[in-house]
Amino acid sequence: MLPYLLDWAHLALRWLHLIAGAAWIGASFYFNWLNNNVRPVPPGPDGEIIGDVWSVHGGAFYRALKKGYTVDKLPEPLHWFYWEAYTTWLSGVGLLTVVYWLNASAWMAGPLPAGEAVAVGVAALPVAWFVYDRLCKTPLVNRPAVFGALVYGLLVGAAWGLSHLLPARAAYMHVGAMMGTIMAANVYFVIIPSQRRMVKRAAEGLPADLTIGAEGGLRSLHNNYFTLPVLFVMVSNHFPFTYGAEYGWLVLAAVGAVGVMIRHIFNLKGKGLPYGPWVAASVASGVAIVLAMAPWPTGKPTAAVSWEEVAPVVTTRCSPCHSTAPSLGGFTAPPLGLVLDTEAHAVAVAPKIVTMVGTNQMPLGNMTNMTPEERAKVLAWAQQQ
Fold first, then answer.
1. Nearest partner of 370 among 308, 305, 350, 379, judged by Cα
2. How many C-beta atoms surround the C-beta of residue 88 within 10 A?
3. Distance between CA 292 and CA 300 in Å, rounded?
4. Which residues pair with residue 63 across a beta bridge?
5. Model pTM?
6. The predicted structure's pLDDT at residue 350
7. How far apart are CA 7 and CA 289, in angstroms?
């Protein structure tokens, strides 16, 4: 009964995580777009309005106004945006708990014993926030390029370190959780408190102090650049050739950098600034990643490999999942209906084996501990079919 209930908890948490994450990132995208597209307005009856933006959507025109001074009276209701961030983070930690930490023997054990691996994963989240927050309190935060490069370098270092302490898939998820923790903590500790001070000052009828919201605005911008790398981590577990690559941490770093460039393109476009070079850089980087990871043939003939030589490897490393009766916990049917119980089964899907084994997609997260020598043997057999 417990595994059944955990499966439903997993599904419920993942759905909640998706719903809240879509709402949070959608709000982040919209408000950064709004901020980038606000244009100054000429003096007029609007008085305190310093900028506006017109848009059309859903059969209606909308005008958003940006006020730079104390409002005469706080509007009711005043909409806040924070439940999306908190719900996304809480559901994400719930997923880490249900999928990884409570199943540590299956998903966390590897370079470290399961218990130690969980301790590393749990500790990584507050450490990420502490280091980032301390950096935000240094003068470096006023130099965006330097600050961004430093934070990026630290996250790449974390990805490299976790890849040597945790299984590949778990390492990816925890790097994503580190970024998600930074984003949610930005909302909880900086953005919302600064907004509360702004509202309190307005309610008291005091003159505006735009510096109150400045730090919150900066942290919101940081969150905006984190969004696409975090989304990549969220979908990467469906693509084992990313985290399962020989240098999976480097793939994460490279694709994450492309995500940051794409987000920067949106921001530049919103401000009406040139963004063409960044489009070229992001496309070129994406193509370079694909080509670098491609399983290029060596051109060297390989010695013939018989089924008798690879059968023990397939039985030990592949069939626990890809069998009519999977023996690996958590699998009740062969993934994608792919069965490797017999030579005939394997021959029929040899091209798929070439792709899956040659790009390290399988075994999933190398859960069955296939060695490089075994991988080379299976790949050579599949290529000869």
1. 379
2. 25
3. 19
4. 54
5. 0.84
6. 85
7. 35
Residues 46/134, Cβ–Cβ less than 8 Å: no
**Domain ranges, ordered by start, for the chain:** 2-37+81-293, 38-68, 307-383
Orientation of helix 2-37 relative to helix 214-236, angle to 10°: 140
Residue count (the chain): 385
Structure tokens at 143: 């130099």
Residues of the chain scoring pLDDT < 50: none
pLDDT at position 93: 96
Q: How far apart are CA 292 and CA 295, in angstroms?
A: 9
Torsion-angle region of 219 (φ positive above 0: left; ψ -120 to 50: alpha; else: beta): alpha
Residue 52 burial class via C-beta count within 10 angstroms: exposed 0-12, middle 13-18, buried 19 and up: middle
Q: Which of 268, 277, 279, 259 is nearest to 37 (CA)?
A: 268
Q: Hey, CA dihedral for 29, 33, 34, 36, is it positive or negative?
A: positive
pLDDT tens digits along 245-298: 889 999 999 999 999 999 999 999 988 899 999 999 999 999 999 999 887 665
